[in-house]
Specification:
By secondary structure, this protein is α+β, with helices and mostly antiparallel strands. Helix content is about 35%, strand content about 10%. A hairpin with a 2-residue loop joins strand 2 and strand 3. The relative contact order is 0.18.
Length: about 220
């Protein structure tokens, strides 16, 4: 399986998620646009208190990619992804970036580019990168309250872990076994390495105290 870490930022590092509505819209798009068939950005198959992709009202999708993990930050996003069909990633990312930019500009009565150029993509090509990347993606929200996590110097680990359990805009909760947006991600592949919910939680806490981003910057696409 070919894994890629995909990232894009707001132009001039501007915020691209200004409200819960924006977060839900982008997550909806991650689900809805992951389809070889034409899809509509206006069809919402989820509610703010439940999962997306209700099977009783949505036709089955023919996926372009597998989304293994994701995280939305105020001015950027991370996705760990693998193609299912030829050119699956560029086709999917074009839909995602264009669809969300159109929504955001119309909602905020603005014009011009929303993202900082084309998305960036790094091939996950070695074992150390593969082992770190899911944790790195899920630890990103700590930038908002514990930026020292990037050097492995978080002093209040419990507070950091509790904060991440309340942060909805990533796949972390679903890997913990806390239902958030379970239909969005295909988790079986990573769970083969990360283990079940209990094993993932244990290794996640351990990684929080050990990870050193400075030594991983090139491979992690900072």
């Amino acid at each position: 399986m070919e894994l890629y870490h995909v990232l894009n930022r707001g132009v001039d590092k501007r915020k691209i998620f200004l409200s819960d509505r924006d977060h839900f819209r982008f997550i909806h798009n991650l689900f809805e646009f992951n389809d070889q068939n034409p899809s509509s950005s206006n069809n919402y198959y989820f509610s703010k208190s439940s999962d997306i992709g209700c099977p009783n009202i949505r036709k089955p999708r023919k996926l372009l990619v597998n989304i293994h993990a994701f995280c939305l930050m105020p001015n950027h996003y991370h996705i760990l992804i693998s193609p299912i069909v030829k050119d699956g990633i560029p086709k999917f990312m074009k839909k995602i970036n264009m669809g969300y930019a159109k929504y955001f500009n119309e909602k905020n009565k603005r014009t011009g580019a929303l993202f900082q150029g084309k998305y960036k993509s790094v091939h996950v090509s070695n074992n150390s990168h593969f082992l770190y990347i899911p944790y790195y993606i899920h630890l990103n929200p700590l930038d908002l309250i514990f930026p020292e996590w990037r050097t492995g110097n978080v002093k209040n680990t419990k507070k950091a872990v509790d904060y991440l359990k309340k942060y909805r805009w990533s796949s972390h909760l679903d890997y913990l076994g806390i239902k958030n947006f379970p239909s969005l991600t295909q988790r079986n592949f990573l769970q083969g390495t990360l283990g079940d919910e209990g094993e993932y939680n244990k290794s996640f806490i351990q990684m929080l105290g050990e990870i050193d981003i400075d030594s991983l910057k090139k491979s992690l696409l900072e």
